[in-house]
Amino acid sequence: MNTQHHHIVLSLVTFALGLFFLLIAIAFPQTRTLVEGFAQAGYPGAFVSGILYSIAFTSSAAAVFLANIPEHFSPFLVAVLGGLGSLIYDVTIFTFARRGRGGNFFQRFASRLPRPKQTLPKWFQTFLGFVVLGSPLPDEIAASIMGLSSFSTSRFMILSFLANTLGIYFLLVIT
């Protein structure tokens, strides 16, 4: 397997392992109590869940935490607070990628990505980043790629906040 596919598979395996461990954990009554207790934390729990929503390994658990927040909490406010939590994590990854921190992990990651013969239009890159950021998929990928591109920090912050807030809001509305 070449290195390009290796990184894609690694991200998906990390996500799947997080989901697997969550399913095992929910099978135990003590862990279910923990999930319910976390959800009962309301708005502070929504903020922390937002941070976890952006991390590949914990995004499944965060979705469960968010979906279990009681109905008497405003879904809009829960989504905004979760979006702010996600923004903190995403900006951290974006900044590390931009500044070349972390043992050049992001540069190595980006250098192993397939380089298309023609670059994708900027609007499509933005749309794709928006979809990845808003979903429970690994935000690390979108944040690091955008950190290595020409996205300004302020533009990325707006994109991240809107995508995650909308993703969390849709999660709350459909559950």
Total count of helical runs of at least 4 residues: 9
Number of domains: 1
Secondary-structure element string: HHHHHHHHH
Which regions contain 5 or more consecutive residues with pLDDT less than 50?
Answer: none
Structural class given helices, strands, pairing?
mainly alpha
Q: On the 0-100 scale, what is the average pLDDT?
A: 78
Estimated share of beta-strand residues: under 5%
Total DSSP E strands:
0
Q: Specify the helix fraction band.
A: over 70%
What's the story with the biggest beta sheet?
Answer: none
Shape: globular
Give Rg in angstroms.
Answer: 17 Å
What is the first-to-last residue Cα distance? 38 Å
Seen as an oligomer or otherwise, the chain set is: single chain
Provide a quick synopsis of the model.
This protein is mainly α and 175 residues long. The chain is built from nine helices and no strands.
Protein architecture, described:
The structure is a single chain. This protein is globular. Helix 2 (29-40) crosses helix 4 (59-67) and helix 3 runs antiparallel to helix 4. It has helices spanning 3-26, 29-40, 43-53, 59-67, 75-99, 105-112, 122-134, 139-148, 153-174. It has one domain (3-174). With 175 residues, the protein is mostly helical.
Write the layout of secondary structure elements.
Layout: H1 3-26, H2 29-40, H3 43-53, H4 59-67, H5 75-99, H6 105-112, H7 122-134, H8 139-148, H9 153-174
Helix pairs in contact: 2-4, 3-4, 3-5, 5-8, 5-9, 7-8, 7-9
List the defining traits of the structure above.
about 180 residues, mainly alpha, globular
